[in-house]
Amino acid sequence: AQTLLSGGMAERNRARLLVLYGSQTGTAQDLAHTLRRRAQSLNLQAAAYALDDLDAEMLPALARSASAVVWIVATAGAGEAPSNMQRGWKALRRRRLAADLFEGCRMAVLGLGDTTYEKFNAAARRLGRRLEQLGAAALEGVARLTLANEQAAEGVYGTFEGWAKDVLRVVAARHATPEMTEEELQQSARQEALSLSLAFAGAGAESDVGGFYEKPYGDLTPFGNEPALGTVAVNRRITADDWIQETRHIEIALPPGNWDFHGGDVAVVFPENSAEIVRRFGQLLLDSAGFPPEVETREKRLAMVISVAESDAQTAPPEWPTMKMQLPRCCSLADFAKRFLDLAGTPTRSFFERLWPWAENEDEKDKLKELASPEGYDLLLDYCIRERRSHLDVLEEFRSVRPPLMALLKLVPTIIPREFSLAGGAPCSADVNSAHLCVGVVRQKTPYGRTHVGLCSGYLASSPPGSSVRLFIRASQMRLPELANGSLHDRSPAHVPPLLCVGPGTGIAPMRALLRERLAMVEKFQEGDGTESPFAKKHFALIFGCRKRTMDFYYQEEWADVLEKHSSWFYMPEPAFSRDTERKVYVTDRILEHSTRQLIWEFLGLRRGSLYISGTSKGMPQDVAASVKQVAIDTGGMSAEEATAWLKRLEKEGRYIVEAW
Known about the structure:
Elements: E1 16-22, H1 27-41, E2 45-50, H2 59-64, E3 68-74, H3 86-92, E4 106-113, H4 122-133, E5 137-138, E6 145-149, H5 155-172, H6 182-193, E7 196-203, E8 228-237, E9 247-253, E10 266-270, H7 275-285, H8 298-303, E11 304-310, E12 330-332, H9 333-340, H10 349-355, H11 362-372, H12 377-385, H13 391-397, H14 405-411, E13 418-421, E14 434-440, E15 443-445, E16 451-453, H15 455-461, E17 468-474, H16 481-484, E18 499-502, H17 508-526, E19 540-543, E20 545-546, H18 549-552, H19 556-566, E21 570-571, E22 576-577, H20 587-591, H21 594-606, E23 610-615, H22 620-634, H23 640-652, E24 656-660
Parallel strand pairs: 1-2, 1-3, 3-4, 4-5, 4-6, 18-19, 18-23, 19-21, 20-22, 23-24
Antiparallel strand pairs: 7-11, 8-9, 8-17, 9-14, 10-13, 10-17, 11-12, 15-16
Helix pairs in contact: 1-5, 7-9, 10-11, 22-23
Domain FAD-binding FR-type: 225-481
Cofactor: FAD; FMN
GO molecular function: flavin adenine dinucleotide binding; FMN binding; oxidoreductase activity
């Protein structure tokens, strides 16, 4: 936890901008630091922090010491706060907080969302309401709450640009110092990128990478803040070899420990760059200054072990906390390239904003500046986003951009771990000490014929049995209903709630995990003392959909086996195969079939069961919800308004949960 230090009075009359963010995939963090840098270019004092980087008790005093406080907040999962603001958000929700906690503080919130998700900007909406309840005033000339939409013409960036201009205009009005010239901007950008200091420990020295893994933001293992080092036990393709989509079933053996997770939870995987990416990075190092003269080859430079430290380059007020990058303590450059630098990631506008000051060629500088500008959005879209060019591609193509090593390590963002719903492996199932994943490999052709492979899905797909994978396990809202609100043993057999699972495509993963956990419970009761099993009555229904029976019917043999042995309590209609017949059939069609419709109403309307939906966010969850509402109307006799209110009540009671991506 950071502590608020007392600072001198010399800087107290300068306008101060405090930027707080909650980021899941890195976009909110990127925009927060973009705003911070732009404020500094206006000679304002500014700093950006993830909410959980700060001690919640110091937040009110920190906010009062700022001229303005702005929040940039994404939404994670089913409307949850992002991982790096969950602790702080929990503290802000405490009922005992005073209604004037933020009295005198001027605040504005920017939410980053996507209208294809049902919980569009839910975290930002809740935050905006809560800040107002705690006495925060609006920032003059800026809306209290602004909601950016990824589906807009310029994505969230278009909204950010207008919002950021308004924020900086209002804050800068309190401070008359003129903004920096281009030369001063270039010097400032170089100075920030050079805030790393390196020491060469030499080739063959031992790496100590622990510093990179010290902030899991609540994603824990039995080993505290360190991710577990699992071992791939199974890696097999579960789509036909000649099918367009490669999907793999992967089982990762976890090291011994007191693991505590359930079906429905999420594996947080730290991917690594390929050997080819590392080799290409090593080639760039040949043009980087600062190496000892005897370290002249690519191989020697990659083998060099460096220790890294960072000075404060945020130009924050002296009494504000100083935040450092999350870095390995000591690491070879090959490990840096393999584990930490997001060399294969697609650059954002801010990357070009930080890159152009290093260009020596004027034409390259002009193109980089255009890519960094709001006016250059179409160029950014064509050159970078649609073509899926990577940070490494850009550095290779702009040959006059050759910053020294310490700047290069800071310019390229760090790899963000990826999340996968577990497809099995809970300790209380038969899969003790393992994490099962169902991974659809991202592989696509760009408009100009380049092949793009997703970093994490490609990494996992190419990890043979015996290889190591770093991961955490994160709790999810999805639980077997009797575990969501207490122990199974606290309930009589008649009150085990039924569960309806809808999981097309790789959305089948958490449903498989929940079913395997249920199977373990059923076996446990069958081995008991002969008392009535709470699972005798039909209570678990699974609706699955894919394109073709012979191509991507995931886990087909498993479902057949469960149906054969446990048809008394398990129900699975014919999967919805959308490409096997002229008429496309989807999971929503299966929901509305007579026999399934009757069972759904029995589960959800009469027996207080739960509805879990998992899979793509592109309209599927909303379509499933609409079909379930139609069941309530046709079979339950509700009006349309009553059916809508009923589904909202299911959600409020934790009986309607969506995991979509």
